[in-house]
Amino acid sequence: MINPSISLLCFFIFSFFLALSGEIYLTHLLPIIFLSLIKFRYFFEILKRLFFLNLFIILVALSVILSDNYHLALLIFIRSNLIILFGLLLFHKMDFYDMAFGISRLGLGSKISYLFYFCIRFIQMAKMDFYKFKRTLKARNFSHTTSIFAYQTYANLVAMLFLSAFKKSQMLEKTMLARGFDGKFYKFQNSIKFGFCDILLIILVLIALILRQGVLI
């Protein structure tokens, strides 16, 4: 497993410079190929998630095609897919707590670390509540129509999600205060290692951004 701090740092550097790049080079594929070899067992699962995320990217590319700028549309499509695929390969099977601890180890401060963790955690909890409400509607034979009743149901669903999140936030605040939470993340020092894969990933990311060889588009 790649060090969470190294993963966050490499993702920020790679995505930032690739997003500002006007061309796609063959060397940009080096860190992606390396991570694909490491996560080979989960590669098809990651590609499946990438396929669904492409629905929005395709809409953006089509909007650019309508202005007859085919080169820019292709550049946006490939560049977005490279950044998303790199992120999916890096953070696949990584726990939110590990990511928050990685932010803390980067020296960004404990407040940013636990704020990031709780935001992601609440998004995950809201997603679970949404699926629970969706199953409830399906069990009650709710049909997705354009009627007033359907719109009222959607509005009630959104309101219930907000109320559930607000209630859980209050319960979480009381729980953390009762347990003496001081805004810091604690973990065994030997659980986070800086190994060969971390060094190799940093080198490949730097090569991908510095040595611009083999223009793909």
TrEMBL record:
<keyword id="KW-1003">Cell membrane</keyword>
<keyword id="KW-1133">Transmembrane helix</keyword>
<keyword id="KW-0472">Membrane</keyword>
<keyword id="KW-0812">Transmembrane</keyword>
<dbReference type="InterPro" id="IPR003339">
    <property type="entry name" value="ABC/ECF_trnsptr_transmembrane"/>
</dbReference>
<feature type="transmembrane region" description="Helical">
    <location>
        <begin position="72"/>
        <end position="91"/>
    </location>
</feature>
<dbReference type="Pfam" id="PF02361">
    <property type="entry name" value="CbiQ"/>
</dbReference>
<feature type="transmembrane region" description="Helical">
    <location>
        <begin position="6"/>
        <end position="38"/>
    </location>
</feature>
<feature type="transmembrane region" description="Helical">
    <location>
        <begin position="194"/>
        <end position="211"/>
    </location>
</feature>
<feature type="transmembrane region" description="Helical">
    <location>
        <begin position="50"/>
        <end position="66"/>
    </location>
</feature>
<feature type="transmembrane region" description="Helical">
    <location>
        <begin position="112"/>
        <end position="128"/>
    </location>
</feature>
<dbReference type="InterPro" id="IPR051611">
    <property type="entry name" value="ECF_transporter_component"/>
</dbReference>
<feature type="transmembrane region" description="Helical">
    <location>
        <begin position="148"/>
        <end position="166"/>
    </location>
</feature>
<protein>
    <submittedName>
        <fullName>Energy-coupling factor transporter transmembrane component T</fullName>
    </submittedName>
</protein>
